[in-house]
Amino acid sequence: MYRSLLENLKQALFLKNRDGVFIYVNEPFCRFVGRTSDEIIGQTDLDLFPEELAEKSRADDLRVIEEDRKVQIIEENPGEDGETPLKQEGEIVGMQGVFWDVTERKVMKDALVKNEEQFRAFMAYSPAVAWVKDQELKDRHRLHSSRRNPHLSADRRSRWCH
């Protein structure tokens, strides 16, 4: 049943022994690396990846072994990598990791932050007043410009901004 779970995950998954040798990889991992499982099993990161990335991966593996706990990492290659030590009779015998591409999510988050900055700049320099309403069109929040519209009297502004 465990193997069925591993084989059907959409995320890339690997298992390594203490020496950093791949002992299992699923199909999404094979696609990520661009090799078959037969070409990956028995290899190390140095055999599969550029030296800098392989050395970082090995350092992460050693950290998992030394700290004896799950480690979550967001990497630039891009993806999120969480490794968990594998134990047999209380002894760490290797690592397992699951990762997936978070590029699209990061791009959307960055766009949202940029839009928020642009909106705040617009409100800061605009004579506008904006209302945020819920689905029932009830006021939830009013956004006032830091500038006052010289064409609105105080009385008229107070009727708009109550």
Can you characterise this structure?
The protein has helices at residues 2-8, 27-33, 37-40, 45-48, 51-67, 103-124, 154-160; strands at residues 12-17, 22-25, 71-75, 79-88, 91-100, 129-133, 139-144. It is built from 7 helices and 7 strands. It has a 5-stranded antiparallel sheet. Strands 6-7 form a two-stranded antiparallel ribbon. The protein folds into 2 domains: 2-101, PAS domain (Beta-Lactamase, 2-Layer Sandwich), CATH 3.30.450.20; 105-160, no CATH class. Helices cover 42% and strands 28% of the residues.
Features:
Beta-Lactamase, 2 domains
What is the gist of this entry?
42% of the residues lie in helices and 28% in strands.
Task: Summarize the SSE layout with pairings.
Elements: H1 2-8, E1 12-17, E2 22-25, H2 27-33, H3 37-40, H4 45-48, H5 51-67, E3 71-75, E4 79-88, E5 91-100, H6 103-124, E6 129-133, E7 139-144, H7 154-160
Q: CA-to-CA gap between the ends? A: 62 Å
How many helices? 7
Order of SSEs: HEEHHHHEEEHEEH
CATH topology of the largest domain: Beta-Lactamase
